[in-house]
Amino acid sequence: MNSAPLPLDGIRVLDFTQVMMGPCCTQMLADYGADVIKIEKGKIGDLSRWSLGSDPDGLNNPVFCSLNRNKRSVTLDLRTEQGKNVVRHLAKTADVVANNFRPGVMDRMGLGYEDLKAINPRIIFAVGTGYGLEGPYLEKGGQDVLAQAMSGAMHRRADPSIPLSIYPTALADYAAGMHMVQGILLALLQREKTGEGQRISVSLYNSMLAMQMQEAASLLMRDDELNWAAMPLSGVFKTTDGAIVMVGAFKENPLRDICSALEIDDLSQEERFSDIDRQRVHRSELQAVFHERFGERSTTHWVERLEGVDILCAPVKSLAEALADPQTAINKMILEAKPTKSGPVRLVGSPIDMSAAPVTIRHQPPTLGADTEAILAELGLNEEALA
User: Fold this and answer.
1) Do 85 and 28 have their domain in common?
2) What is the DSSP string of 247-271?
3) What is the per-residue pLDDT for 2?
4) How far does Cα 364 stand from its chain's mean position?
5) What is the Cα 8 distance to its own chain's centre?
6) What is the pLDDT of residue 384?
7) Which residues of 318-331 are buried (b: 16+ CB within 10 A; e: fewer)?
8) Residue 19: which region, alpha, beta or left (left: phi > 0; alpha: psi -120 to 50)?
9) What local confidence, expressed as pLDDT, does residue 51 receive?
10) 119, 263, 273, 329 - which has most CB atoms within 10 Å?
11) b/e for 377-386, b at 16 or more Cβ within 10 A?
12) Contact at 8 Å (CB) between 126 and 184?
């Protein structure tokens, strides 16, 4: 087993985050060695422990477990001065404080950046919000789906005839969580130079805008709509036993090679399809040809044919199929913790593979308040204060 120190050994994080944006950030910090102390409300804890309904493992349901391994859990009543004072004690030796409350919540508790900076000038105060720390949406509730809608991402689709819909994975939460990781690491590096901490802020809204940087630049600089899903030689096509996705790009004449794979006449010889601009104009006609031809054979058949002429393609898999794919196991993307009374605890691992810092589950996803007594004892509080 690798005994080398992890990159974030010695870094302590006070984690007030809930649901996904913040917890996916602090879990990554924990995976790479940070001592993440998850501060939760008594009896109910993190909203993700219970907000999706009941589970055989109670407050340690799969959604909570997926975001909270390698952390320790403390329950505190932050409505009381005693609870707030515990946070202040912890802040004296903490490196990072992370929260994704609505703007102003930590300040109203007397635990905002200026409050904690007065205790510890080296503190890095990481804030995740829906829309930012100022502006017309300051008081508006932030949530992943709302950010998809407000940022323009939900409006963009392959074809206007496709109904507007919610993307079924929390894109904004994950993107903002990873941006928060980056901000914290940058602040830690800068602190090495200056000796001082700082406040960093990320938002769901900004992260969704940033994910559309290419499309935004096309609009801002050329007033042109760039839509990767609407490219004429790309698309998702049903086959006799499933579906295939094809990306006809990055070649001198991809349409010629697509037609070769599909065993049809070379449509690139026709004037209406002779270059990318004409193909965009006549996209619906091209797509109709592709849909008809792909529907005649199996997914495996078409993958082999397209890859034979170096056209990018892949079968459309379910998540269950992807998790069972040999590549997933080879990439060590499934981690297993100790089973509970309800069954195995199997979680998706880190997408970052460091040869000298492999991710393992050092701490089970914590039960609510499991580490309260131990952490308060570390502060030197006596039995009366613990009670």
Assistant:
1) yes
2) E--SSS-HHHHHHHHHTS--GGGSG
3) 55
4) 21
5) 20
6) 64
7) eeeeeeeeeeeeee
8) left
9) 87
10) 273
11) eeeebeeeee
12) yes
Tokens found for residue 374: 């131990």
CA–CA gap between residue 7 and residue 357 (Å, rounded): 7
Does 163 reside within a domain? Answer: yes
Which residues have a Cβ under 8 Å from the Cβ of 304 and sit 6 or more positions away? none
- Shared domain for 304 and 332, answered yes or no, is no
Phi, psi dihedral angles at 304 (to 5 degrees): -65, -40
Cβ-contact 111, 87 below 8 angstroms:
yes
Co-location of 90 and 197 in the same domain: yes
Amino acid at 362: R
Residue 253, CB-side half-sphere exposure with 13 Å CA sphere: 12
Count of positions (residues) in the chain: 387
> Which residue type sits at 145?
V
pLDDT in tens, 338-381: 999 899 999 999 999 999 999 999 999 999 999 999 999 898 87
Tokens 């998540």: give the residue.
319
Task: Give dist(CA 265, CA 256) in Å, integer.
Answer: 9
Classified as helix, coil or strand, 341 is coil
Choose among 352, 16, 358: nearest CA to 185. 352
Task: Indicate if the alpha-carbon torsion angle 289, 249, 224, 270 is positive or negative.
Answer: negative
Give the model confidence (pLDDT) of 293-312 as tens digits. 999 999 999 999 999 999 99
Residues 123 and 46 in one domain: yes
Q: Give backbone dihedrals phi and psi of 129, rounded to 5 degrees, phi first.
A: -130, 175
Single-letter amino acid, residue 99: N
CATH number of the domain within which 299 lies: 3.30.1540
Half-sphere exposure of 342 (CA within 13 A, CB side): 11
Asked if residue 223 is part of any domain, the answer here is no
Gap between the Cα atoms of 147 and 144, Å rounded: 5
- CA 303 vs CA 44, 231, 292, 300, 325: distances in Å: 49, 19, 16, 5, 16
